[in-house]
Design a protein that fits this description.
The strands form two sheets. The chain has a seven-stranded mixed sheet, sandwiched between helices. A two-stranded antiparallel ribbon has the order 2-3. It folds into two domains: 2-83, no CATH class; 108-335, Bira Bifunctional Protein, Domain 2 (BirA Bifunctional Protein, domain 2, 2-Layer Sandwich). It is of the alpha+beta class. The chain has helices at 2-21, 25-36, 41-48, 56-83, 108-121, 136-139, 172-180, 221-236, 289-294, 311-319, 332-335, and strands spanning 126-127, 133-135, 164-166, 185-194, 206-216, 242-249, 252-261, 278-287, 303-310. Helix 1 runs parallel beside helix 4 (56-83). It is built from eleven helices and nine strands. Strand 6 (242-249) and strand 7 (252-261) form a beta hairpin. The relative contact order is 0.10. The chain is rod-shaped, with a radius of gyration of 42 Å. Bound molecules: phenylalanine (PHE). Residues 169, 171, 249, 252, 283-285, 306-308 line the site of phenylalanine.
């Protein structure tokens, strides 16, 4: 009889489990009637007790009561569980304050380029771009840079093959634009340039430039000065002064190095400007007739000016950053300040 009772227990538990899994109240009630009801199987066993020998009776009686207790407990639990709504996902406490995901932002150099673009866009300059991997022709030859010029040396340019290189200046885009378009032209071309410089606080093997080019009949040096003045005073503030110093670039004639009054000491002289009160921000000049000839423009008909500025340098001056490497280290403590 003990064996039969143990088997009954096993079977009953299985049925209970199945009723619970199906969440069937009907099956559960069926279970109750079948095992625990007044005329149920366990009652039946209890009523058989008197037929057992006096030695067997207490042990079987105890077992029947234990099983009854277990099944009753199981049934109550199952019933309660069926009455509770089924919880599919863990409950979320919607009264808790939310946690904001950290939102990224543009890199300070991207912001600087954008600010500069905005200023030139208001003067009618269109934004264009050119390839970073360039032909030697666009980087040097077409820009009137002779084969023996020091910048064409292996030590000053990253060569990929004899005539393919990483552009060392955005002036390449002047040629690409003039090859495709007729004058009048007013463009700026932001982008990366590469030079095999040793990395330190002021140099990097990769940096950004913004090239500018304006070509039209009658464009003169005064237009160049006017455009750059507007740029410097809009970007660095209305008190900014500017000066042009004679310089040399093979693709402009005359050429100038353009300096602004030091943004830190306002021209009084400090460590950033080396005590002079002036800081160079770009190279510029009137487009050389040989450059016009290289793209098939008539230098007698058209004149133009070009300039090229270093974006990192301009951002460093604007924000008082003293190490160019900060731009490229991706340290969020630095980047999140912009
Ligand atoms: N390409 C020159 C440089 O990288 C800058 C420049 C651009 C000068 C256009 C004159 C005109 O130094």
């Amino acid at each position: 009889m003990k064996q039969a009772l143990l088997e009954l227990r096993e079977k009953a538990l299985q049925e209970l489990k199945s009723a619970l899994e199906k969440r069937s109240a009907e099956e559960l009630e069926h279970f109750r009637v079948k095992y625990l009801g007044r005329k149920g199987l366990l009652s039946e066993y209890l009523s058989k007790l008197p037929t057992l020998s006096p030695e067997e009776r207490p042990a079987i009686g105890k077992l029947v009561n234990e099983i009854k207790g277990e099944l009753t407990g199981g049934f109550e639990e199952a019933k309660a569980s069926l009455e509770r709504p089924k919880v599919v996902a863990p409950l979320t406490d919607i009264s808790l304050p939310g946690c904001l995901p950290s939102i990224g932002r543009s890199h300070p150099l991207v912001q600087t380029i954008q600010d500069i673009k905005d200023i030139f866009a208001r003067m009618g300059f269109q934004v264009v771009s050119g390839p970073e991997v360039e032909l030697e022709y666009f980087n040097f030859e077409s820009l009137n840079i002779p084969p023996d010029h020091p910048s064409r040396d292996d030590f000053d340019t990253f060569y990929i093959s004899d005539d393919v290189l990483l552009r060392s200046q955005t002036s390449t885009v002047q040629i690409r634009v003039m090859q495709k378009q007729k004058a009048p032209i007013r463009i700026i071309a932001p982008g990366k340039v590469f030079r095999p410089d040793t990395v330190d606080a002021r140099h990097s093997f990769m940096f950004h430039q913004i090239e500018g080019l304006m070509v039209e009949e009658g464009v003169n040096f005064g237009h160049l000065k006017g455009v750059l003045h507007i740029f410097a005073q809009t970007y660095f503030g209305p008190d900014t002064r500017m000066r042009f110093r004679p310089s040399f670039f093979p693709f402009t004639e005359p050429s100038a190095e353009v300096e602004i009054s030091c943004t830190l000491c306002k021209g009084h002289g400090c460590s950033v400007c080396g005590g002079s009160g002036w800081i160079e921000i770009l190279g510029a000049g009137m487009v050389h007739p040989n450059v016009f000839k290289a793209v098939g423009y008539d230098p007698e008909q058209y004149t133009g000016f070009a300039f090229g500025m270093g974006v990192e340098r301009i951002a460093m001056l604007k924000y008082g950053i003293d190490d160019i490497r900060l731009f490229f280290e991706n340290d969020v403590r630095f980047l999140s300040q912009f």
